[in-house]
Amino acid sequence: MSSSTPDITLYTNHGCPWAQRAHIALAALGLPFKEVIIDLDTPREAWYLKINPRGLVPTLIYDTETICESGIVAHFLADLQPSLPAPLSSGPLLSSPSNTPAGALHRARVAFFADAYFSKVHASSFALLKAADEAERDKLGGEMVGLIRKELEGLVGKYVKEGGFFDGREGIGMAEVLLAPFLLRFYAFARADGPHALFPADFPDRMARECPAFDGWAKRVMAQETIRGSWDEESVVRKMAERVEGMRAKV
C-alpha cells in the first residue's frame, strides 16, 4: 500500500444510513475519494457482486484492498488516521489507539454505547415507522423516548461533557460516526408532516424534556458539517414515506 495519500473508491448510496457512516468518517479525516453510486432499488449487477458478494453498501476500496460493512469501514478509517501523511494525520483522532489502557477503555465505552442503541433502541424506530395510525404512532413514540431515557440518557450524562462529544472529545469521534446517520433520520422523521408524517410531531419536544442530555448531544452532532455534508433530508424523508406507505398498503 502507498505511504502517500491512499487511492480510495467508495461504493455507496446517499439514502443509506449505513453507507453514510463511511461518508462521515472520510469527511472527518479529510480524505479524498472517488464515489460510485449503487442503486439499492434494483437487483445488484454482476460486476458489483464480484466486488462485494453481499451486494450491500458501503464498500471501500483502499488501494487494492476491499473492505465491506459500515462498522468495519469506519473503524478501519479511524485506525488508519495516525499513519496518514500530514496534515491528514494531525487532526483530532476519531478513535483512541487500543495500545494503552485509556485507549482500550475509550473503545470499550464507544462499543457499549453503540450496542446500547442498536440492541435496545433501534428496533423501536422500525416499529414506529410501521404504526397504523396516529394513536399507535404516539404510543410507540413514547415507548421509544422511554427506551432512550433508560438505555442512553445516563451514558451521555456520564461520558459527554457539557457542549462536547462522547467520552470527552471536543470533536466528533467513533460514537458519533456510528450513530449520526440514525439520529438525523429520526429527528427528520419527526419534523415531517402531512403525507410524509412518520414520527409523532411532539417527538422532539419529548426528547428535549425527558432526555435532555441525549437530546443536547444529538443536536450538536447533527449540526456538524462533517455530518450534514452527506445528508439530503428531503430525499430521505420522501423515500421513507413512500416505502412506509407501500408497506401499509400490503397489510
| Total beta strands | 4
Count every helix, treating DSSP H or I runs of 4 or more residues as helices.
10
Q: Could you spell the SSE succession in H and E letters? A: EHEHEEHHHHHHHH
Spans where pLDDT lies below 50 across 5 or more residues = none
How would you classify the helix and strand content by structural class? alpha+beta
Largest β-sheet summary? 4 strands, mixed
**What is the overall pLDDT average?**
93
Distance between the amino and carboxyl termini: 52 Å
Binned, the helix content reads 55-70%
Question: How does this model look, in words?
Answer:
By secondary structure, the chain is of the alpha+beta class. The protein has ten helices and four strands, in the order βαβαββαααααααα. The protein has helices at residues 17-29, 46-51, 70-80, 101-129, 134-159, 174-191, 203-210, 212-223, 225-228, 233-250, and strands spanning 8-12, 34-37, 59-62, 65-68. Strands 2-1-3-4 form a four-stranded mixed beta sheet, with helices on one face. A hairpin with a 2-residue loop joins strand 3 and strand 4 (65-68). Helix 1 crosses helix 6 (174-191) and helix 5 crosses helix 8 (212-223). The longest helix has 29 residues, at 101-129. The mean pLDDT is 93.
